[in-house]
Write a structure and sequence with these properties.
10 helices; 2 domains; Alpha-Beta Plaits
Length: 316
């Protein structure tokens, strides 16, 4: 997928997730108030956190789309990672901490369940909506992984655009959380012990803390100029080695400056024949290679340094 296609797919994924989670949060909140279920209150906080976080992801998508300027010569792509990091903090604070607190409170002060069928119905509808959002995020990630010749799991670890991955992780946690809430309500109703409900609230909170950690860790790595993964570097080396004037790649580095955008620096040793030809020819060949690399979907800018023969004292 091209950078523009990936961005459009990310916007669609986020908007679907926002609409789904807002509707789910309202329904869960009403059901939680009617049933008194700690697990449903935890799931309400979960959906509210997801809605707010996906709004942050949307803000990041829009702000990162601005063109380069004098202060930001490589553009604003890294803003997407900053807003994703804020979303991770929202998952942790609004979702995780609140859910754990609500679960502990319910454990210390048990409450009876009321209107159980309403709570179950809301959770089942929420499960369907979450599954639709999850399917959209998974479809985008599968297409991105196929375009980069990766497995889904590998792409989740290495993707430079964390938007769809964040939505997928949130929706996966939501599906697991809803399942826990359904089991807790059923067991509470059957046994009369409120500990099932309280325990589910705590587990949902811990699940959200784990998701927040995964999202924050990936965003942190990208924000501190993480190197491109080995498969991207290998493809760059293969492309450079196709040039008949390149004898050896002395050094090659590539760091992300935005989702799907790399800053590449290459130090290349030309073949001996090139040193006997006019310097302008070598410069033209290097410029043509730079242009070809910049035209790639994953390259933002390229700097090429030509290295002299080992026994020469000056560079070309």
């Amino acid at each position: 997928m091209s950078e523009s296609a990936t961005r459009e797919a990310s916007v669609r994924t986020v908007l679907i997730a926002v609409l789904a989670n807002f509707a789910i949060a309202v329904a869960k909140g009403l059901a939680a108030a009617m049933t008194g279920s700690a697990a449903l209150w935890a799931e309400t906080a979960h959906s509210l956190a997801d809605t707010g976080n996906e709004v942050l992801l949307y803000v990041g998508l829009r702000r990162s789309d601005r063109p380069p300027d004098e202060r930001h010569p490589f553009g604003y792509g890294q803003e997407r990672w900053f807003w994703t990091f804020l979303a991770a903090m929202g998952i942790f604070l609004v979702g995780g901490v609140f859910s754990i607190t609500e679960g502990v409170e319910a454990m210390l002060h048990p409450r009876p369940l009321e209107d159980v069928p309403i709570g179950v119905a809301v959770l089942l509808v929420s499960l369907v909506l979450e599954a639709l959002s999850w399917r959209t995020a998974r479809k985008q990630l599968r297409e991105e992984a196929r375009a980069r010749r990766r497995s889904m799991a590998e792409h989740l670890r290495r993707a430079s655009d964390p938007t769809a991955a964040t939505v997928l992780l949130e929706d996966t946690a939501a599906i697991v959380g809803i399942t826990l809430a359904l089991l807790a309500i059923a067991l509470h109703s059957l046994t009369g012990w409120a500990g099932w409900d309280a325990g589910a609230g705590i587990l949902i909170g811990l699940l959200l803390v784990g998701v927040a950690y995964l999202v924050a860790r990936r965003s942190k790595g990208l924000l501190i100029d993480e190197s491109a993964p080995p498969d991207v570097l290998d493809r760059l080396r293969e492309r450079i080695r196709e040039e008949d004037w390149v004898r050896r790649i002395e050094a090659l580095t590539a760091v992300y400056v935005g989702p799907g955008r790399l800053l590449v620096t290459a130090r290349l040793l030309p073949v001996p024949e090139m040193n006997r030809r006019p310097a302008e020819i070598l410069v033209e060949r290097a410029y043509a290679l730079r242009t070809a690399l910049c035209a790639s979907d994953v390259i933002g800018d390229v700097e090429i340094t030509l290295v002299p023969e080992p026994d020469e004292s000056s560079s070309t």
